Amino acid sequence: MPFTSLCEWSRRLSAGEISAVELARLYLERVARYNGRLNAFVHHDEEAILEQAAASDAHRAKHGARALEGLPIAIKDIFCTREGPTQCCSNILRGYQAPYDAHVITLLKEAGAVLFGKTNMDEFAMGSSNETSAFGPCRNPWDAERIPGGSSGGSACAVAAGLAPAALGTDTGGSIRQPASLCGITGLKPTYGRVSRRGIIAFASSLDQAGPMTRSVEDAALLASVLCGHDPADATSVSNVPQIDWKAAVGRQDLKGVRIGRPREYFSEGMDAGVLGCVERALECCQGLGAEIVDISLPHTEAAVATYYVIAPSEASANLARYDGVRFGHRCEQPRDLLDLYTRTRDEGFGPEVKRRILTGTFALSSGYYDAYYLKAQKVRTLIRQDFLRAFEQVDVIATPTSPVTAFRIGEKTNDPLTMYLADVFTIAVNLAGLPALSQPCGFVDGLPVGLQWIAPAWREDRLLSAAAAYEKATDWLSRTPELEAMA
Amino acid sequence: MRPSSDRGFDAMNVDVMKVAMLARIRLTKDEADELGPQLNKILAYVDKLSGIDTEDVPPTAHPHDVAMPLRADVVSNGNRRDELLAPAPEVENGLYVVPKVIE
C-alpha cells in the first residue's frame, strides 16, 4: 500500500475506494513509525495535514476533482509556505515563518494537493549527502548507515521509504537526480525557466530549478504538469516556449528508432564497476526495444565540476548576503555595533559548508579576481553548453549514469569537501547548460539502488518521459522496496 | 593575495580572514585554521579552468538565449507592512531596529 503510485492513488480516490483523509492517515502512520530513525521530515503537522485532506474530500464532493485532488505531496524545506516553518535546514532561518507561498506551492494548493510536511535537506541545498542539515542527517531507507544523497535527501528518502507517495525537490547541480538515484526513485529536473523560482529560497539563481520526485515516470509527469508554466513574477520563468503534453509523452513509451547518445566521458574507468554494469545493461535493454546507441563525446565534461564550483558559490555568496540579522532569521545577542551584528550573526547562523561556499564565492567575485574566476567560468560554461548543442545534432536523448557510485556511508566524505564535490560529476553539466534531465532506477549493487540519467535538449522533457517510460515498462525495478522493519 | 596574471591564475595562499571580512562572517581562529586550507584546496582545484582556451568565447549568464521580459509597472501587492515586518528580530514603529550607526 505505501508504495502505491501517485496515479494509482488518484484513480482509487476518484473511484471512491479511499478518501483523502484515509490516505493522509495511512502515510501519517508510516511517518510516525519510521521517521524517528530515517529523519526524512523536519516538520510535520498532523492536524494541518488532516485539515487539508478533509477540505479536499469536501471539494471533490461539491465541485469534482482537480489534477492532484487529495494527493499528499512532501515539500522540501526550501519552498516558502505560509503554513508551518520554512527553515532551509539552516540555523540562520530557525523558526522562520514565510509571509507568502512559493508560486509552485500556490499551484499545488490550487490543484487540490495535500502539503505533507517539510523534508530534510542539506543546509541551503549545499551538499550531496544531506549531512550538512542543521537538523541532522537523513538516512537511506535501503541501508540506514548510508546517506540518501543530497541536497533533496529527505524528499528522496520519504518517497523511497513509502512515507509519502511523491515529493518536491530542487536541483542546482544534481540535487533532485542524485538522491533519486541513490534512493531508487524517479526524479525530474525540468529545463531552466520551465518552473517558477519565486518563493524558493535562492542558492544559485542561474542554475536552480524545482521538480518532482516520485516512484514512477507517469507520476513525475502528473506532478510536472501542475508545476510547469510561466510565472510573470519570475523574470527567469520563460513564456514563449513549446508546451509539453505530459500525458501523451508518457503514453508514447516508445524507443523505436530513438537515437540514444552514450557520451564516453560518462563511462570512464574511475567509476564503480557495478554501477557501470547496471547502466550498460539498461542501454542494451533500450537497444532491444528498438533504440540506436550512438557513441558521442562531450569534451568539456571534466571541466564541469570546476566551472560549477566557481559559478554556484559566487551566486550563493550574493544570494546569502540577505541573511544579516536585520529583516528575518537569527540575530546574535547584544551586538556592539552594526558590523558586529552582521559578522557574529552570520558566523553563528551558517554551518561550515555554507561558509566554505560563501567564502569561495566572495573570493571569486572580489576585486582583481573576477575576470580570472567568475568570467572565466562563465566562458567555460558556454563551451559546456556548446558540447550538448553539438551532440543533439546527432542524437535525440543522452543516457548516462546519474552518480558514479551508490550511496556512501554517513561520515565517509565529510572530512574532504572536494571529494564530496566530485560526487556531482555526472549531474552538474546539465545545470550549467540549463537542460532537462531525469533519473530513474536501473538496478542494484549490493542491495543499493543505481540510477540511469536521461538528458534531452532544452524544452524537450517529452523525450525524457517517453524514453524513461519505455524503459520502466520493460523492467520491474519499481516492484522492489526497502525492508524497513528494523528501522521502526 | 596577488592579482591574476595574463596566463591565468595560480594556486595561491588566500588570506581566509580577509575574505571572511568581505563576506561579513566573523570566523573564530579554529574555524579559520580549518576553512583556510580547505578554501585554498578548492581554489587550487578550480584553477584547472585556466588551462582551457576561451579566446573569443562569450560568457554565459543565462542558459538560454532569451531576452529579459518586462511587465507593466503597476502596484500588485498592496500594503503588507506588518506582515512583512513580522519575521524581523526587532521592530519599532514599523521600522527595523539596528545598533546605532552614526556616533
Short descriptors:
heterodimer, A: 488 residues, alpha/beta, Amidase signature (AS) enzymes, eleven-stranded mixed β-sheet, 11 strands, 39% helix, globular, B: 103 residues, mainly alpha, Histone, subunit A, two-stranded antiparallel ribbon, 2 strands, flat, disordered N terminus
Task: Write a brief caption for the model.
The complex is a heterodimer of chains A (488) and B (103). By secondary structure, chain A is of the alpha/beta class.
Describe the protein's architecture and organization.
The complex is a heterodimer of chains A (488) and B (103). Chain A is α/β, with parallel strands linked by helices and 488 residues long. Chain A has a domain at 6-252 and 463-487: Alpha-Beta Complex (Amidase signature (AS) enzymes), CATH 3.90.1300. Chain A contains 16 helices and eleven strands. In chain A, helix 2 packs antiparallel against helix 3 and helix 5 packs parallel to helix 6 (177-183). Chain A starts with 5 loop residues before the first helix and ends in a 14-residue tail after the last helix. In chain A, 61% of the residues are buried. Chain B has 103 residues and is mostly helical. Chain B has a domain at 1-53: Histone, subunit A. Chain B is 29% helix and 4% strand. Chain B has three helices and two strands. Chain B has helices spanning 16-22, 29-46, 81-85, and strands at 91-92, 95-96. Chain B has a two-stranded antiparallel ribbon with strand order 1-2. In chain B, strand 1 (91-92) and strand 2 (95-96) form a beta hairpin. Chain B is flat, with a radius of gyration of 22 Å. The two termini of chain B are 34 Å apart. At the A-B interface, helix 10, helix 11, helix 12, helix 13 and helix 14 of A face helix 1 and helix 2 of B.
Succession of helices and strands of chain A: HHEHEHEHEHEEHHEHEHHHHEHHEEH
CATH fold naming of the domain at 1-53 in chain B: Histone, subunit A
Specify the biggest β-sheet of chain A.
11 strands, mixed
For the secondary structure, the number of strands of chain B is: 2
N- to C-terminal distance of chain B: 34 Å
- Overall mean pLDDT score of chain B? 86
Please state the second-level CATH architecture of the domain at 6-252 and 463-487 in chain A.
Answer: Alpha-Beta Complex
Helix run count of chain B: 3
Computed CA radius of gyration of chain B, to the nearest angstrom: 22 Å
